[in-house]
Amino acid sequence: MKHRRTVLAPVLAALAAGALVAPSSAATAQPSTPGSRAAAFGCPEGFVCLWEHANGKGKVYRFQWGATDLDDLGFDNTASSWSNNRRKEKAWCLYPEAHYRGTPLRLGSGKSGNFAAARDDWASSVGPC
């Protein structure tokens, strides 16, 4: 019972902050359309996902409402790849500072990718532009 409580506590904290933490086990697939590209890293429809490693590998955070401070999730300056599988917003933005401050990086709807070296492990907040 103690093990179950230890595992659930971080998940419940992440849900309260607007994100879900789970290991990524999806294989990278070659997309045929922009809509399928977002799913290439295994990001569910309706979410923006950030991974700790390139090519959608490692710990993943799935966002529906954004996060004003990724440090609250233990994921500040950690993201190396991304996927925007939201349909309602055209783009989401990553910010170099908490609370949506600094010059944003736009993540186009229906797309996925790895961050260039200058933006790898760079983001501190994420949300709709």
Q: What would you note in describing this structure?
A:
- By secondary structure, this protein is of the alpha+beta class.
- The chain has a 5-stranded antiparallel sheet with strand order 1-3-2-4-7. Strands 6-5-8 form a 3-stranded antiparallel sheet, with no helix packed on it.
- The N terminus is likely disordered.
Order of helices and strands: HEHEEEEEEE
Low-confidence stretches: 1-36
- What is the strand arrangement across the widest sheet? 1-3-2-4-7
The number of strands is 8
Oligomer: single chain
Number of helices, counting only DSSP H or I runs of 4 residues or more:
2
Structural class of the secondary elements? alpha+beta
Could you say which overall geometry the principal axes of the C-alpha atoms support? Answer: globular
What's the topology here?
Blueprint: H1 2-16, E1 19-24, H2 34-39, E2 48-53, E3 57-63, E4 81-84, E5 91-95, E6 105-108, E7 111-114, E8 125-128
Antiparallel strand pairs: 1-3, 2-3, 2-4, 4-7, 5-6, 5-8
Q: Main attributes?
A:
129 residues; alpha+beta; Gamma-B Crystallin, domain 1; 5-stranded antiparallel β-sheet; 3-stranded antiparallel β-sheet; 2 helices; 16% helix
Summarize it.
This protein is 16% helix and 31% strand. The chain is an alpha+beta fold and 129 residues long.
